[in-house]
Amino acid sequence: MNGRRASERLEKDAPLFRAEAVAEQQDRWLGTVLLVPRISHVLWTGVATFLVAGVIGLVGFGEYTRKSRLQGSLVPEGGLIQVMAPQPGVLTKVSVTEGKKVVRGAALAVLSIERRSETMGETQGEVVRALRARRDALVAERDRHIALFDGQDGARQRRMQGMNAALEHLQVEFDLQHSRVDLSRNALDRQRALRQRNLVTEETLRSAEEEALDQALALQTLERQRSTLDLEKLDIEVAHEEAPFRRDLQLSEIDRSVAALDQEIAEAEAAREIVIAAPQSGTVTALQASAGSSAGPDMPLMTLVPEDSYLEARLYGPSSAIGFVRPGQRAMIRYEAYPYQKFGLYEGVVASVSRSTIGHLELAAAGISTVTDSGSEPVYRVTVRLAAQSATAYGEDAPLQPGMTLSADIVIETRRIYQWILDPLYSLTGEGKV
User: Fold this and answer.
1) What 3-state class would DSSP assign to 122?
2) Residue 65 backbone phi and psi in degrees, to 5
3) Residue 380 β-bridge partners
4) Which of 5, 35, 211, 384 is paired with 104 by a 20 to 30 Å CA distance?
5) What span, in angstroms and rounded, lies between the C-alpha atoms of 198 and 352?
6) How far is CA 46 from CA 49, 56, 57, 274, in A?
7) Tally of domains within the chain
8) Cα(254)–Cα(248) distance, rounded to whole angstroms?
9) Region of residue 336 (phi > 0: left; psi between -120 and 50: alpha; otherwise: beta)
């Protein structure tokens, strides 16, 4: 009971409003506080709003192009042809100069591979000289055979002419003797008729018979002589017909011997010196050969630029730089001979990307020492097809030359900035790029 009365007394003694509310109502006649903004605050707020909007617009609509920069040089479409000696030796002659145009098979240089001995000196030279002496002897023998055959042919023709004349003369004698035989037979017949009538003696008849027999024997002698001349004429004719075959047979034997010697001489000469010929028509560049200098299979003597070949850019880069390089991508090329600050960039298109690594020899031939920081990372080749075969310098077309060094930016892809920002997030979620 006493507790309830105490609580009622406390409620009667407590104020209806809080002291802070009563104090606030007492100062109300002063009015409300109004903060007036400064001009600088408005300006900074506008600038901040503009910057935020600009950043949002840049992130939302701006684009960024990813590029890969590679180094390389210009080469003909079919590649440069490096001319090297087939084996070690000494150059005795260089037949070309820098910039000279040559045709396929033209002699470029002569390489001596002569071996020397203490007793004979140039051994292969002595062998070649001996073989040439044998060849000269065979050629002289061939000439003698030709002269001999020609002389024999002339002699046969003269004999044939004499034989024909003798046969004609013998034929005249034969005809006359045949007439004598006929006359002697007629005379013998008359003497026999007269003897039957005892008008002539037996001795006269025998004389007529002997005369007829002598004339017949003389006719047979002329017949044998004519047969002998006919046989001799036949022998001459046969010999005349066989002479070309005998001549060709002997000359062919000599020619075979000469050909065999020519082959031996060629082999000996090949073992002595080698003529280095142009494998293809083109222009000589990077000439390093000189008479008296050493040469070998690992030492380029010169380089041939194939005739009527288009130039292309061969770029080289490490695997980290060409991972996303694909054929058909655009390339912006900078030629060191024509600084891009003055002459601009030149376009090209990626034609191919090598599937295997490139050796250091090709890099050295392209004039590139290294394309990686460590020098041990694998290097690949990227071939770029040029949009133009010349550069524009001071309003004129300047033709591009093989071997010119260059660098190129290959356009990998162009994406909006927000896509690049969100790319790591999408890579983690596995949804790919936006």
Assistant:
1) strand
2) -100, 125
3) 317
4) 384
5) 136
6) 5, 15, 16, 86
7) 2
8) 10
9) alpha
Phi (first) and psi of residue 359, to 5 degrees: -80, 165
Range of the domain at 19: 2-63
Decide which of 207, 239, 270 is a domain's last residue.
270
| Run of H or E residues at 222 | helix 202-270
Cβ-Cβ contacts under 8 Å for 134 (sequence gap 6 or more):
261
Please give the structure tokens belonging to residue 314. Answer: 């061969």
Per-residue confidence (pLDDT) for residue 164, from 0 to 100: 83
| CA proximity to 68, closest of 408, 350, 386, 333 | 408
Residue 417: CB atoms within 10 A of its CB come to: 15
Closest to 398 (Cα-Cα) out of 328, 301, 311: 311
Do the beta carbons of residue 128 and residue 265 sit within 8 Å? yes
DSSP summary character for residue 422: H
Phi then psi for residue 109, to 5 deg, are -160, 165
* Secondary structure percentages of the chain, helix, strand, coil, to 5: 50, 25, 25
DSSP letters spanning 290-324: -TT-EE-TTSEEEEEEETT--EEEEEEEETTTSTT
For 288, other C-beta atoms within 10 Å of its C-beta total 13
The overall pTM is greater than 0.70 = no
CA distance linking residue 430 with residue 271, whole number of Å:
69
- The Cβ of residue 93 has, within 10 Å, a number of other Cβ atoms equal to 16
What is each CA distance from 67 to 20, 268, 324, 329, 434, in whole angstroms? 69, 60, 10, 10, 19
Q: Are residues 228 and 160 in the same domain?
A: yes
| 260 vs 410: CA distance, rounded Å | 62
Number of residues written out for the chain: 434
Looking at the fold, whether 48 and 143 belong to one and the same domain comes out as no
Buried b (16+ CB within 10 A) or exposed e, 228-248: ebeeebeebeeeeeeeeeebe
Q: Which CATH number belongs to the domain containing residue 265 in this structure?
A: 1.10.287
326 in Cβ contact with 349 (< 8 Å): no
Q: Profile the chain (434 residues) by mean pLDDT over runs of 10 residues.
A: 53 60 59 61 76 70 69 85 87 89 91 66 70 88 86 81 82 83 83 79 81 84 84 82 82 88 81 85 87 86 85 87 84 91 91 83 64 69 91 86 87 64 60 47
